Each structure stands twice: as C-alpha cells, then as structure tokens.
Amino acid sequence: MERVVITGMGLVTPSGIGTEETWRSVLAAESGIAPITLFDASTFSTRFAGEVKGFNAEDWIPKKKIKEMGRFAHLSVAASTLCLKDSGIELTDEDRDECGTFIGVGLGGLEQLQQQAITLHTKGPSKISPYFIPTVIANLAAGQVAMALNLRGVSYCNTSACSSSAHSLGEAFEWIRRGRTSIMVAGGAEATISGLGIGGFGAMFALSRRNEEPTRASRPWDKDRDGFVCGEGAGSMLLESLTHAKARGAKIYAEITGYGASCDAYHITKPAPGGEGALRAMRMAVKDAAINGADIDYVNAHGTSTPHGDLEEAKAIATMFGDHATSKKLWVSSTKSVMGHLLGGAGAVEAALCALALRDGRVPPTANLEDQDPECSLDCVPLTARERPIKHAMSNSFGFGGTNVALVLSRFDG
Fold this sequence. Notes:
Blueprint: E1 4-13, E2 16-17, H1 19-27, E3 34-35, E4 48-49, H2 63-66, H3 71-87, H4 93-98, E5 100-104, H5 110-123, H6 132-136, H7 140-149, E6 155-156, H8 164-177, E7 183-190, H9 195-203, E8 233-241, H10 242-247, E9 254-263, H11 276-288, E10 298-300, H12 307-321, H13 323-326, E11 331-333, H14 336-339, H15 346-360, E12 362-363, E13 386-387, E14 392-399, E15 403-410
C-alpha cells in the first residue's frame, strides 16, 4: 500500500486566518471566543462563540460567486486556496483529473436555511432565492472548492456530525493508500453561528452560558465546565502518496499512518459508558498504524467541555493507553479550549494541529484548565504549551449519533 503524507495545509479559524497564525495563537492559549457579532444574540441564553474574525469572502472568491455559497463554503474555499498555495504544487492536467476533494460538513448553510424560511413565511415561495439549495447543502463545500481550484477527481462530503472532517481525512487516506488516486484535498468546514444554530444547541442545554467571561467559557476537564462553545472555521490538507510527493520534491509536514472508526450504537447525543465506542476507534487506529499504544506521545482530544462527554473520553483514553496515560507519559490536550467546537470542521483543524505539533515538537495547552476534575486521571497539559520530540500523535473526533474517528499522524522520517 502507498504511504500517505501531508504536504500542504490551510486553516481559517477563530484563532486566525492562516495556518501559522492559528498555530501561534493556539500555542499561546489566546482565546478566539468573544461575544457574537454575526447576528443579534441579545435574547439568547448563550451570547458568545468562536467566530472567524476579519474574514471577507471577497478576498478569496469572485464577487459574483459569493451569493452561490453559504458561509461554510466561503471558509472552505479560503482554507483550500491557502492549502494549495502552502503546498507549492503546480498541478498538471493529470493531477487535476486525479485530485479529489473530500470536505466534511456537519450541518451546512444554517444561516441561509433560516433566512429563506423567513422569506417564505413573509413574502411567499416566489421570493425564495434560486441559490437557496446550493447555499445550504453540505456537499457544496467540496463542490465549490473543486470548481474554484479546478480539481476534477472524486468529490463528496462526509456528514457524520462532529466527526465529519475526520472521516473525510480518513477516507482520503484510504483512497490514496489503496492506489485509487495519488493526490487529494481533504478537510472540513462549518459555519453555524446563526440564530437557528445557537438557539438549537441552546435548547439542548449543550452550550456554556458563561456570558460574562466568554474567553474562559471553554474549559475541557475543568470542574467548572458547563458546556461547549460553538465555533466556525475550515481546515484543508493536501494529501499525497509518498511517491507523488517525492517526485515533485514536496515539503512534508507529517504522515498519516492510522485510521479507526466506530459507532456507539447507544444514544443520539450521549457517548457510550466508559467511552466504549471511542475506545474501539482508537484501538483500530493504533493497530492500523502498526504501532503500540505506548508509542503515542500526544492526543489532541475531542474534549468539548461538556460535563459528561469529557469524562467518558478521559476514561476511554485511560483504558486505551493504561499506565502510559495514567503515569502522565502521554500528553493530552483540547484545542477547543481556545477556538470553541468547530463541529464538522473540528477534526480537520485538529488533525492539522497534530501535524504542526509533530513538525515543531510543541504541544498546545488546554486553556482554562484551572481545577482539573478529579475523575480525569490524565495529564491534560493545563494552561501552557510544552515542548518535547513527538513521533506519533492521535486526533480524536466524536459526534452525535455515536460516530467516532481516531487518526494517527506520525513524524515523517523518510
């Protein structure tokens, strides 16, 4: 089977527009969470989120095309454009015929769904925008990226709630290593900071309500956590077979070596007791990478800051890694503590952060972890980034419906 490497990355997140700016901010534990500006949230129980600040779609997309896309697609086109530029690739016609686009999205264009429903109610069906459906459906992030960059290979969207973009990376990895293609743009995007999105999650009592101090609201594994913080953003990676990457002399961030996926088959929102489904995905990923659990140096955890979910994931990690975890040899952190939960886009962004951790030997901290829940026995890298050589890292993504993904990324040693 082909080895699969990461040769380009583009991040557009609440922590910054651009990969290096996001990475710098995450390492410094600078919060990208603030009061909502995308709509009037004054009557909502939660009035803050992780917005991509300073984003102007016209910087990335021709003006006449902007109305064809929801915000999630705007963000994805920007991230994918940055990704290809970062890779330094000059695509041949053969590359364009091969290069697929797998962009995972959980919910799609909620802001357009909300607005067009209002239009239908107040003005009637004749006033619904002809672009309504294309701005809403989840696969149009992949479709718009493919059109913007002229990528003519396989294109589709994995939609599996908060595991969506992790599935997209895993499936792109599978396509390349099986030899079905040699190059893929893979990642995810989400933009649900709208009345419908914030109101919907608020109705589930899933969101933090720490309105007076939003920068301290996302606090994975902290005793005072009270729910997750909604975020938006996009992350794209260029994945190549090692053969293709070497042939063009590409720089290589890291190698994807393992992919595990499972389903809890337990509950629509709650994880299985003991994180049993997550545990199976992690075991599968480690086995796929042909390594041992003790070889993993860092886990970028799902770590959403919910009272129940954080503990079940901590139990799963402790069971998976045993003494390696409980003796604090394994470092675990949640970067959602600074950017919130990017939902369908989270897995791609967090896998990219793992690749950067492998490159630089730096582990991002869990911000706001001031008083760790005693039921969590892990070293969750509180407050401050750390340094050490990292050979293997794992990125966890879990979603409603019991869907679980674990990815193993490894330092590329030639």
